[in-house]
Design a protein that fits this description.
Layout lengths: L18 H11 L5 H7 L4 H7 L12 H9 L2
């Protein structure tokens, strides 16, 4: 795994915002990571990650029509 260093303004307190979960959520939302990879980045179980994504405005469900139709077909 790569290591990245970010400079965060001092006004943003670490306790009020979980950067790793936010970053993982957005990378998942943009399809750069799977849910499992994003959960690992956030140091959470996959289930916990999926449950917390809504806090960051990210749906655990795909919005691509192709994915939705595949889910319906495989249900």
């Amino acid at each position: 795994m790569r290591t990245m260093t970010l400079s965060i303004p001092q006004e943003v307190l670490p306790k009020t915002f979980d950067y790793s979960v936010y970053l993982a959520s957005k990378l998942y939302e943009d399809a750069f990571l799977t849910a499992g990879q994003a959960a690992e980045l956030a140091n959470l179980s996959k289930r916990s990650f999926i449950e917390i994504m809504g806090k960051y405005g990210v749906s655990p469900f795909s919005t691509k029509m192709e994915d939705i139709l595949n889910d319906i077909e495989n249900a």
